[in-house]
Structure formats: structure tokens, C-alpha cells
Amino acid sequence: MGLNSKIIFHLMGLLLLCNGFFMIMAAVVSGVYDDGATLDITLAAVVTMLVGVLAMFYTRNHKKEVKRKEGYIIVTFGWLVMSASGMLPYLFSGAIPNVTNAFFETMSGYTTTGASVVDDIEALPEGILLWRSLTHWIGGMGIIVLAIAILPLLGIGGMQLFAAEAPGPSGDKLHPRITDTAKRLWLIYFSYTVAETLLLKLAGMSFFDAVNHSLATLSTGGFSTKNASMAYWNDQPLIQYIVILFMFLAGSNFVLSYYAFKGKVQKVLMDEEFKFYSIFIFCFTIVASLVVYFQANVPMSDFHPKVLGEVESAFRHTLFQVVSVITTTGFVTADFTSWTPFLTIFFFGLFFLGGSAGSTAGGIKVMRHLLIIKNGLLEFKRTLHTNAIIPVRYNNKTVPENIVYNIIAFFVLYMLLFIIGSLVLGALGLDFESAVGGAASSLGNVGPALGTLNPLVNFNSLPALGKWWCGFLMLLGRLELFTVLILFSPYFWKRT
Whole-prediction pTM value? Predict the structure, then answer.
């Protein structure tokens, strides 16, 4: 049985159409603000949609069937095709004239990493800024889930795509029909974005900034329209608390949000992952804020106005950084690498935590960590009782052995890729701190890193090859490793 290549090209065409539609939105905003990039963004949209229409036209008589193999190819290539077309507004408008930089910025957008190579963000036209925010908003919930939501085209085999794309070890189905699930998730995602926009506007942000930051928060992308990121609003605590709340929601499982809206609050509170996700954030914030308050010696300045006193400032900044790093959003209000060496290593450890499964966050995910720890502790029992069958339990249900093995394999592979990622960046001339930080940040889709890539600078200092490499690591991290790496195995391409 060969690959159903027609459906692959057909869906690529469909994704390009979606992408072109979002570009037109950015072009409209560009026209409203008269920022001089309207024609360029419109041209990018026309080119993208034209290629999309042609791809769909030539494959119109495709077999409506997506097998697992095609699912993996569609997801990985979907991301690459979207990134290739997403570069066009930057290139055509001259906002980012270099192909390498434009690719990095776009890939960072779609993978919701939020690492940027733009030195002066505030100088970019409004239409381009909105496009930058839209890329990760699309990538947040997953381009493919979007395709399923909008087009019930994939009535057959939609699950294959969903399984390959949805972040986390378990694709929690709310509804038997995968299309309905995707629609419900998107509706929650969209509603949260609108709610945050309104709240930020009321709190004192301009409407344009409020829209962009909402798109960035809910997707855990972390692109800001300001060079100083969220530190621009250090004198307005309310704005930062609103962003913290929505980062927390974006990093928790969207399925739980659905249950909460249905009034099944008990189900949310009893969820093991949500419990630990909340506990982790609480404990880490307490530890970090105590260290900042007693040891970090952060001076009062224009950058740190401490409007509500020193205690509140230490608490707010650490809570903001902890939530931002755990949910892999990557917004910053302060440089956490300057707080103390202890906190630099502390935050580096958080790069590997990640948000909840079924959220828009990157990283390894809390659920995986939980199951690895539980399995590790049960090994002590198994050592004493060699014949006993002691399964791992999660939410009072037995976890099948194959899932536990899959998670352990994922963890080992993640760590190996992190080491290889750091080695490559080291070979390209980065110092230890920057190489290790850059690899962990790219693979976990975090955004800010360490060393020369710390939260107050961007990734523009990377050599050209380093940018392509980090772009590849971002893709691996966003698509949960196996989805991309399986395409490199010879076994995958054998005719079965």
C-alpha cells in the first residue's frame, strides 16, 4: 500500500488557504493603521492562497482517507509549509529581509516559542506585529486541529491527525466525533482570547497591544509588541496579574476548562495533573520570591518601580516568571538570570517542566513527570515483591504499560536531543551557558534562555546555522518529538 499523496497535497493547500486568510486579517489592520506594509502583506496573502488553491484543485479527486503514516507526514509538513508561507509578509515588507531570520521568527511563532531575532520590535509596522502574533495563535491550538474544526473533511481518519498533533500523552476526547472536539477546544481558546483582550483594555493597555498580548498569552507564544516585553508595564501591576491568570489557564488542560464551563468543577479539582500543576507553581513561586526578597537585592529603578512596595514586587515578578517559564509562554518582566546563581539554575530546571497535557504549553508536560516519578517509586515495591504486578495509577485509573514505556522513551529521547542540541550550539561557537540555555529553551518552546540569550536580549546574535538548528529543535519540541523523528526512520518509508 503506497502513500495517499493526493490527500497530503490537498491538505497542504487547505492549510495555505487558512494561512492566507489570516494574512488578509493582518493586511486589513495594516490598512487601518496606514503603516505602509498593507500592499506587501496583501501580496503575501494572494501568493499563499493562490498556491493553496492550485494544490487543492490538482488533487480534488483524492481518496478521503488518512492513515497513520499520512497523519505524521501531514502534521510535520503542515508545520513546515505554514512556516515557509508565513515568512512571506516579513520578506515582502522588508521588516525582516533576511530568509534565515524570517524563517526563525516564523518557526518561533508557529511553535509558540516566542524567541525573536528582531532588535527593534516597536519599529515594525502594526500589520506585521499582528501577523507575528497571529502565527503563534494559529500554532497554539494546532494548525491541524484548526483544519479539523473548520472542515469536517476529515471525518475519516481525523483521529490520526489529532493524535499526531495534540500536545501531551493523552488526547482527551470530549465528544466521540473528533470534529466536534476540535470545535469545542477552539471555541474555548477563542473565548479566552476575547476575554483577556477586554480585561487588558480595561486595565489600561491600548486596544492594539491588548489584542496582540492576548494572542500571545493564550497560545503561550510570548511575543510582545514592546522591546521590554511585559516589563514595559512594570508600573501597572493589574495588567501583569491579568496576564498571569491567562498564562495559568493556557498552561492547564483545555478539556478541564470545558468541564468547568459545564459546571463539573469537581472534575477539575480532582484532576491529578491540575492539582500538581497548581502546587508546583505555588511552591516554586514561594521559594523564588523568598530568595529575591532576601538575597537578590533588586534596586528600585524606572525598570523596577515597585509601585506596591518591595514584598509585592518580589512576589509579582517571581510569580510572573515562574508561570511564564512553566507554561513556556516566555513573557518577561525582569531578568531572572541576574537574581542569584541559585535562581538562574532554578529557572533553567523549570525549562524542562512544561505545562499540562492538552494545553498550548510546550516542554515535557507535568503529566509525564508525574507518571515517571510514580513509576520510579513503584520500582522500589517491585524490587521487594518480584512477582507482584503493581500498575501505575493516574486519576484512580490504571495506566497501560505501553503508555508508561512511551513516556520513559519520550523522556530519554528529549534529554538526548537536549544534549545533542547543546553540543551543536557549542560547536557553532556559543559559550556553555548560552548553548545549554538555547537548546533547552528551543526544545521546550520556552523563549528566553541563559547567557547571551538571556531574557533581556534576543536570539539575533546566533550564527545563521544556529538559527536553523534552533528552528528545528522548536519543531521537534512542539510536535512531541516522535511525530517529526519518525520521518527520519527508514522503516517509516518502507511500503507496507
Answer: 0.89
